[in-house]
C-alpha cells in the first residue's frame, strides 16, 4: 500500500514559491520540470477523500506560467540590451576621426583658425549675446546680438573669426565662450558647447564612451549634440 501524504503538507510547500526559486537558479526548462515534478507528486499522494480543487490547481498552474513568462521576458530584455549595446558600439566607432560638439565652453585659436563652438537652447530666444573671454577673465570679443539673431530651441553652431573688439588679431591660445540668452527680457536656459575630435572608443560596463583626448576626457554618446 502506498504511503499517503497529507496534501496540506505539499500545499504549504507553495509550488509557486518553489518555482520562483528554481527560476533564479536554472533555465526555463528546468523550472518547468521542477514544477511538474512537484505537481505530479502532490496529485499522486493527495488524499482521495479530499482531492485538490480545480481552482487550486488552476492557481498553481497560473503561478508557474507567470514565473515562466517573467523568465522569458528577462531573456528577451537581455537580448534587446545586447543588441542596443552592439548598435551603440557601431555608432560610436563611426565617429572616430569626426569633430563633435559636446557640453563645454572652450575655444582654441591657432594661427588663423579657431575651433567652432555651439549654443544649446531649451526654448527659443529673441536675443543671444556671445562673449569670447580670455584666460584672465577679460572680454576679448563681444558678438553683437544683431549678428547672432533670434534662435530657435535646439543646437546652433558658430565660428569666431579670431579677432578682438578693436579688429586686431587675438593671440593664439585657449579662450572661453560665455553666452546669455533672453526671450522677452526673461533669461532662457542655455548650454555652451565646444568642439572636440573623437580619437577612439572605450568600452565600459555602462556602454561605449568616446575618447576626446587628454583635455576633453571621455564622454558618452548622449553628450554629442552635433557632428561637424
TrEMBL record:
* Signal sequence, renumbered to the chain: none
Q: Return the InterPro entries for the record.
A: FlgD, FlgD/Vpr_Ig-like, FLgD_Tudor
Task: Give start and end of each FlgD/Vpr Ig-like domain.
Answer: 109-184
Q: Which UniProt keywords apply?
A: Bacterial flagellum biogenesis, Cell projection, Cilium, Flagellum
Reading the lineage from the top rank, the first entry is Bacteria
| All residue ranges annotated as the FlgD Tudor-like domain in the record | 88-225
**Short name of one Pfam family for this protein?**
FLgD_tudor
Similarity-based family: Belongs to the FlgD family.
Q: What does this protein do?
A: Required for flagellar hook formation. May act as a scaffolding protein.
Write down what this protein is called.
Basal-body rod modification protein FlgD
Provenance organism: Modicisalibacter tunisiensis
| Gene this chain is encoded by | flgD
Amino acid at each position: 500500500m502506498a504511503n499517503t501524504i497529507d496534501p496540506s503538507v505539499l500545499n504549504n510547500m507553495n509550488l509557486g514559491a518553489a518555482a520562483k526559486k528554481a527560476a533564479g537558479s536554472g533555465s526555463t526548462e528546468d523550472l518547468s520540470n521542477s514544477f511538474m515534478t512537484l505537481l505530479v507528486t502532490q496529485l499522486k499522494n493527495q488524499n482521495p477523500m479530499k482531492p485538490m480543487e480545480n481552482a487550486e490547481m488552476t492557481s498553481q498552474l497560473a503561478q508557474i506560467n507567470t514565473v515562466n513568462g517573467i523568465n522569458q521576458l528577462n531573456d528577451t530584455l537581455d537580448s534587446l540590451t545586447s543588441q542596443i549595446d552592439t548598435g551603440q558600439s557601431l555608432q560610436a566607432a563611426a565617429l572616430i576621426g569626426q569633430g563633435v560638439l559636446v557640453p563645454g565652453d572652450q575655444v582654441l585659436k591657432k594661427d588663423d583658425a579657431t575651433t567652432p563652438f555651439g549654443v544649446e537652447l531649451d526654448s527659443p530666444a529673441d536675443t543671444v549675446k556671445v562673449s569670447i573671454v580670455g584666460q584672465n577673465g577679460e572680454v576679448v570679443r563681444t558678438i553683437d546680438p544683431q549678428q547672432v539673431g533670434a534662435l530657435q530651441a535646439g543646437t546652433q553652431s558658430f565660428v569666431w573669426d579670431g579677432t578682438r573688439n578693436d579688429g586686431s588679431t587675438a593671440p593664439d591660445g585657449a579662450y572661453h565662450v560665455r553666452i546669455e540668452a533672453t526671450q522677452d527680457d526673461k533669461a532662457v536656459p542655455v548650454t555652451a558647447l565646444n568642439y572636440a575630435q573623437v580619437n577612439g572608443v572605450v568600452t565600459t560596463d555602462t556602454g561605449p564612451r568616446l575618447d576626446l583626448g587628454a583635455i576633453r576626457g571621455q564622454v558618452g554618446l548622449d553628450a554629442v549634440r552635433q557632428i561637424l
